[in-house]
Each structure stands twice: as C-alpha cells, then as structure tokens.
Amino acid sequence: MRYLRYVNLGVKMEVDLTKSASCSDNPVTRILNLLNEGIKEFIVIVRKDTVPFDFARLVAMKKGYEVEKLEEAEIIVKLRFKKK
C-alpha cells in the first residue's frame, strides 16, 4: 500500500478517521489494516464513541504496539500507535 512509501521517506503518517468515504469504510478496520502492515508509527484521529481508547489499546497490544493519547476534544481523540 501507499502508506509504507511515505513512512520510508520519514513522513509522519496521520489519518483522519472521523469522516468515512463510504458506509463500508469502518475506522476499526482501517486501524487493523495499518497495524497489520507493520508501520512503525502512525497517528489516527477518531471519534471516542467509535473507537474507545481501551479498545484501541487492547487491539494494539495484541499486534505489538503501544498507544498514546495525544489530544482529546469533546468527542474526538488523536491517538499515536507506535511499534514496541
């Protein structure tokens, strides 16, 4: 996928998952795809009611990642996933 090329160039990857392009565009599925690709570090912006922090942390731990909450607004949260 295109993501790996950008990471190899040293560009931080930030993905906004608060708006879906289609009804089949699920934020959880997109995060799982990024984790399965093995990207070293990436940031996602999600709605807290769609991807709760504890759920994101649990999924990330199973894939060998740490999750850090960078910013939090009313219902939007910015999470950094980093490979251990």
Features:
alpha+beta; globular; four-stranded mixed β-sheet; 84 residues
Query: What average pLDDT do the residues reach?
Result: 85
Number of domains: 1
The CATH C-level name is: Alpha Beta
CATH architecture: 2-Layer Sandwich
Low-confidence stretches: 1-9
Reported by name, the CATH topology is Translation Initiation Factor IF3
Strand order of the largest sheet: 1-2-4-3
Order of helices and strands: HEHEHEE
Structural class: alpha+beta
Q: Please give the count of helices.
A: 3
Helix content: 25-40%
Radius of gyration: 12 Å
The rough form would be described as globular
Strand content: 25-35%
How many strands, which pairing sense, and closed or not: the largest β-sheet?
4 strands, mixed
Q: State the total count of DSSP E strands.
A: 4
Protein name: Sulfurtransferase TusA family protein
Organism: Thermosphaera aggregans (strain DSM 11486 / M11TL)
Strands, helices and their partners?
Layout: H1 2-8, E1 13-16, H2 27-37, E2 41-47, H3 53-62, E3 65-72, E4 76-83
Quick rundown:
By secondary structure, this protein is an alpha+beta fold. It contains 3 helices and 4 strands; from the N terminus they run αβαβαββ.
Structure explained in plain terms:
The chain is 33% helix and 32% strand. A four-stranded mixed beta sheet has the order 1-2-4-3. It is α+β, with helices and mostly antiparallel strands and 84 residues long. A hairpin with a 3-residue loop joins strand 3 and strand 4. The longest helix is centred in the middle third of the chain and has 11 residues, at 27-37. The chain has one domain (2-83): 2-Layer Sandwich (Translation Initiation Factor IF3). It is globular, with a radius of gyration of 12 Å. The protein has three helices and four strands. Mean pLDDT is 85; it is low at 1-9. This is Sulfurtransferase TusA family protein.
